[in-house]
Each structure stands twice: as C-alpha cells, then as structure tokens.
Amino acid sequence: MLHDRTVPATGLDLQERVVEINRVAKVVKGGRRFSFTALVVVGDERDVVGIGYGKANEVPVAIQKGVERAKKNLYRVPKHGSTITHQTMGIFGAGRVFLKPAAPGTGVIAGGGVRAVLELAGIHDILSKSLGSQNPINLVKATMAGLESLRTPDEVADLRGLSINQVLGLTDKHADDAADLTTDIEAAAAVAAEQS
Description:
Blueprint: E1 15-28, E2 31-43, E3 48-56, H1 59-72, E4 75-76, E5 79-80, E6 83-84, E7 88-92, E8 95-101, E9 108-109, H2 112-120, E10 126-130, H3 136-148, H4 153-160, H5 164-168, H6 173-195
Parallel strand pairs: 9-10
Antiparallel strand pairs: 1-2, 2-3, 3-4, 5-6, 7-8, 8-10
C-alpha cells in the first residue's frame, strides 16, 4: 500500500544542479570519438526532487537531456519540519546511503551528489553516511531510493490499523495494560476468597 508521490513538473520553480560530467572515449578506426554524460539533480528546494542522466556529443546537450529526464522523475519527499520523518537506508547497486533525521540547526551533513539531492529536496537538517560504492550515479540513485522509502506517520498508522498517536507513542498504552492486569489480579483474588 505504498503511496504514489510522483509529481508533474508543470507549475514548479525547479533549480538544476550538475553532479558529475564524464567524458567517454570510443575508439574507432580513425582515432577516438568523445562523448559526454551528465548526472543532473533538479528540485524546488521545498519538497520535490528528481534525478536524470543524459548522454550526448556536447556537454550542454548532455546536461539538457539530463534535466529533461529528471523532470519526468520528480518525487515529493515526506518531511517532518526541516528533516526527514525517520531514518532509512537507500540501496542502489553497490551504493548504500544511510539517512538519519537531525535536530534543527544541524545542517546537511553529506557530501557530493548526496548533498545536492538533499538540498534540492528542501531538507535542511540531516545526517548521512555513504557505506558502499563511491560511484556518483549509484550514490545519487541510492539517496533517491532512501527518500522514496520514507513514510509519514498516518501512512504507517493506516498500514498497522492504529491511531497516529499510538504510532508516535503519544498514548500511554503500557499504563492501560498495567491497569487492566491489576484489575484482573484483583478479580481473581476475590473469586479465590469466595471459594475458600
């Protein structure tokens, strides 16, 4: 029962950030032919972010293709204030990115492509650690996988059949259970007293 959080690009004020440009050489009979790839992150710096990968013979065209692809894959990130709703691990290929909510004022503790994705998603306080591959493409895609796996408290409450307060631990369920147990013991003691 995962919620679809994909967003159309129309009407959004999107910022672009180029994470990586790579030159690729193809050896042919007459020498080498060079082409370029560009890894691009786009987002509105509030809660929408997307990534794209473009390839072309010229750098500007590769970036443009990356931006167009990123705009087709926009995603709305669930947030709690200026951080994420819960800690998560994003995995893509050999790339593993651990994301953990942080207190206000912490800032974005992340590097490279992970920082670009988190900043354009509008997250201002977060701790992150790359635990696997340092390949920028895998890192960025693992970060997106982590953000896509986030859920809001009401989604978790629907899934478990509980109220939002119970999911967040705001109701004193343990105290209620203890009170029920005490009344059961008292009732059993009263029945035993009557029988003796």
